[in-house]
Amino acid sequence: MGPMAARPTPRISIVDDDPSVRRALSRLVTVAGFDVETYASGAQALAGGLPSDVACLVVDVYLGDMTGFELSRRLAARGLTAPTIFITAHDDAATHEEARRAGAAAYFTKPVDGEILVDAINAAIRP
Amino acid sequence: MLGIIGVAFPLPAAGAKDEGGPERSVLLLYGEARALPAALDIDEAIRGRFRAADFEVRFFTEYLDLSWTSDPRYMERLRAFLASKYLNRRIDVIMTMGAPALRFALENRGALFAGVPIIFTAVPPGGAVPMGGETGVTGVWMAAEAAATVDAARRLQPQARRLVVVAGAATQDRAFVEDVRRDLKGRAQGLETSYLVGLPMARLREALAGLSRDAMVLYVSMLRDGDGKVYSTRESLRILAPASGAPIYGLSETMIGQGIVGGRVVSFRAQGTQAAELALRVLRGETAERMPPVAAPPNMFVFDDHELTRWGLRERDLPEGSVIANRPPSLWAVYGTHFVVGAAVIAVEGALIVMLLVSRRRRRRAEAALRERLAFEGLVSELSATLVAARGAEVGPAIARGLRQVGEHLGVDRVSIIEISPEGGLDFSYAWLAPGIPPAPTPVELREFPWAAARLRRGESYAFARLDELPPEAAVDRESYARMGIRSSLACPLRIEGTTVGALAISLIRAEQVWPVDLVARIDFVGGLFATVLSRRRGEHELQALRRDLTHVGRVASMGELAASIAHELNQPLTAILSNAQVAQRLLERGDLNRDELDAILADIVADDRRAGSVIRRLRAFVRKDETQRSFVDLNAVVEDVVGLVRSDAIFRNVALAVALSPCLPRVVGDRIQLQQVVLNLVLNGLDAMQDSVERHLLVTTGTDEDDAVNVIVSDHGPGVPERDLQRVFEPFYTTKTQGLGMGLAIARSLVESHGGRLRVENNKNGGATFTFTIPAAEVLGD
User: Fold this and answer.
1) DSSP state at residue A67
2) Which of A70, B12, B314, B531 is most buried when burial is the number of CB atoms within 10 A of its CB?
3) What residues of chain B lie within 8 A of the CB of A119, using their CB?
4) Residue A112 maps to which CATH number?
5) pTM for the structure as a whole
6) Among B88, B92, B118, B115, residue whose Cα is nearest residue B105
7) Can you name the CATH fold of B4-141?
8) In this predicted model, what pLDDT tens digit does every residue of B262-281 receive, in sequence order?
9) What string of H, E and C letters represents the secondary structure of B61-99?
10) CATH architecture entry for B411-520+528-534
């Protein structure tokens, strides 16, 4: 293991259309020791251009303008293939199945336990 | 598309005769909303025939109000209402009056009256009602004789050149006029014939006023005029007859005495008597299958003496065998004993009495009886008009008016409707008091009148002119009457479905009065009218309860459809709360007491908790089942509430939901929850419709129209409604969805209509459907 200082703080991107959830998740992930950017919609995430060194994405499944799966596909098309954790307030078998097929690093239904989400992020960014 | 309710509770079939119950039941179905003259005649004749045969039978009566609307939802409710009302009753015979009632009975026979023989009256032969392959249906045909009437009129008015046929706008009116047209074909040569059908009353009156004596008017039927107003024959003729410039002729006995000259008229009494004959045969064991319908009883030429005089028409021009009605009693003396023609006297709105006058004494007696009868028929007709059409909030005032009419007619002190309360008390629900008479002292208990109560419970009336006429076993009652200061009284039971629910009581305090047997019988009949209204009031309460249940079912069903959306609505704030709380915990564990950060986190937790609470509150409001609450409602706020509830659902379905609210929208009066339900149904419906659409826009707007009604418009971009289904979408259980009951739009329309509004649908030019509902504004906004 190299010296700690040499390792940059991993960057996490959160995409969720609910401002309150976005703020809370952002605090949660920050307190867990990550750098965080948040996006309110799929379009914003695409337009803003996610940093290329993003370590992990936390994406809500229903974003208002597109689904989280679609965002994930479009990002992949641009060569961005960071591990993605999907969260959703609509839990059903179809969504679960689609998350699996999208290659989700993890899949959670809201309300998601903060500890577990942070554990999942840690697991996703450690090869 | 049969109602679940109608099918779920079919009436017990009469086929299986149970051994125990000797009581037989006859259900009388009338097509109209109230006892119109013809129905009264038939009703009286049927009951009279059963009485004469001494055949014990229980009658149930329904006025179906079929001319009011052909809306399938009304039929649905009606079916459901009848199904629950007659759930545990065995009906042995159904008797119908008129084509619509027979059609109703046939159409609902399977669901409501399986296997019960049907006996019809007042139906013209010749396929007016398709009988299909129905067995066990028989009855009495009715033949209106327009041509014979016109022939007679031409003999009275040889100079006449024009014939004007008059009828109303109701379906039934138009059906009658078609029969007349067929009958007159080739029979009115030399007469310029015109048909005035479906005009508003005022215009018809004008048209008749413009006629001269070279014309004759044939009045066919008018249940409703071109403005949709409902009339009885008496009511419409009261308006038309005095105004008409030409003599009016008619086709039914009930029109005689109302301002028509006369005609070859149908006797509804004869119809009723013959039908009762058939019913008796069925009840005595003959099978209706083997009884073909009987030919129409012969009609009679009846003319009104008063009208003949008014128009200067000569009695010697009348067809042979004509009966002259309404001849003033004083004239009879002139004709003396050689006058053998039966003088038919038509009671106002009522019955035909033919009397052969053979001696002066008999004549005088007959005259007195006749006057009394006329006065009584007048009373019945007024009462019938007052009471039977009353609905909802009109019932109370109508009963009060009815009691006054009875009181003034009889010249008594007090007329009361007394209902038995569940606790055994006596409720003086309605009372009329002569001027200066105090109300009956209260409270009064049932046990203070044991003898009277027992009689009334058995369905028997009683009357006494003096207290000491009461039998010895009525000692307790006598004391109670004395204590109440009543000297003379008559009481008739009010029975609903064979159970005594109260009494019509007539009392005298200032004097004693003898009650002739005839009078008691007539008041008994009047009691029946009041009982009908009370029973209708109870029926309306049941219907309201049914509507409440349906609304509740609909709301709960909508909630089911919304479950996913609601889960989303709740999960968002819960997610935020949990994360924020866990962040706060971590910060505290670390000793990181950044006060601003902690304040911000706690403020967010509080806000999200409130947000979750409001979702729950909205949810609870939607599924609550209770009485309607009327208040001022801002439809903009209603739309916002609903949009708040479905916003995430729309996102979930990938629909762009846009809202355009009018900035100055007058409020309406209504039930906020019900109106939310309507908007919710329309919005969900729109979302569902766009399931397979490429473009998914839903627009909700509010505004006002020219009539100062407030409207809410929900416009989708789905496939639209197939042209042939534009009306059906509001039928219960109409659905194109695989899920859901299909009750949404039916309930939405009934809720809008209960607010005095209208809900309609049309297809958009560029695809999709637009649902619009309007509700009258309750305030005027200044600009």
Assistant:
1) B
2) B531
3) none
4) 3.40.50.2300
5) 0.40
6) B118
7) Rossmann fold (3.40.50)
8) 999 988 888 898 899 899 99
9) EEECCCCCCCCHHHHHHHHHHHHHHCCCCCCCEEEEECH
10) 2-Layer Sandwich (3.30)
